[in-house]
Specification:
By secondary structure, this protein is α+β, with helices and mostly antiparallel strands. The chain has two domains: 2-42; 49-137, Nucleic acid-binding proteins (OB fold (Dihydrolipoamide Acetyltransferase, E2P), Beta Barrel). The protein is built from four helices and five strands, in the order αααβββββα. The protein has helices at 2-12, 18-42, 49-55, 134-137, and strands at residues 62-76, 81-88, 91-98, 110-117, 123-130. The chain has a five-stranded mixed β-barrel with strand order 1-2-3-5-4. The longest helix has 25 residues, at 18-42.
């Protein structure tokens, strides 16, 4: 019996650890796939008003950055509907947003809207973000 046991251990010891090699390769492939797949998500790209207009209406979610035009702000607190225009160097964009009005929302504030551009020329924002006000950037100045 001892002869059979030693014969089995001699045949099993020289085999390379295929399970470890295969497992390591799968882990490396998954990590590379995650890095490549999420690389585009981490970059932040904003369209200008002109670029959005050139693309035209779409069902694709877009992100546009601009300055809030004060006289265009219409807030309906009962229905939580906020209508306003974003402005940049290339033009103005009418925006409709359904949701709570941000506290810092005012004329001249820098905003980013995310949503879809409709055939009626109105951008329907699903998300509204305000950039940090410039008064915080100048806080260190005397």
């Amino acid at each position: 019996m001892s002869h059979t046991d030693s014969g089995q251990s001699q045949t099993s010891s020289p085999r390379p650890p295929y399970k470890f090699i295969l497992g390591g390769a799968v882990i490396i492939l998954v990590v590379v796939w995650l890095i490549i797949g999420n690389a585009g998500l981490s970059s932040v790209y904003y369209l200008t008003v002109a670029e959005l207009g050139a693309e035209g209406p779409s069902d694709r979610v877009r992100r546009v950055s601009g300055t809030i035009v004060g006289e265009s702000i219409h807030w309906n607190p009962q229905d939580l509907v906020l209508e306003f225009e974003l402005e940049d160097d290339s033009g103005r964009l009418p925006v409709v947003y359904h949701g709570p009005k941000p506290d810092m929302f005012r004329d001249g504030a820098e905003a980013v809207v995310e949503g879809k551009y409709g055939v009626d020329g109105v951008f329907r924002a699903s998300d509204l973000f305000l950039k940090c006000p410039s008064k915080y950037e100048d806080a260190g100045s005397p």
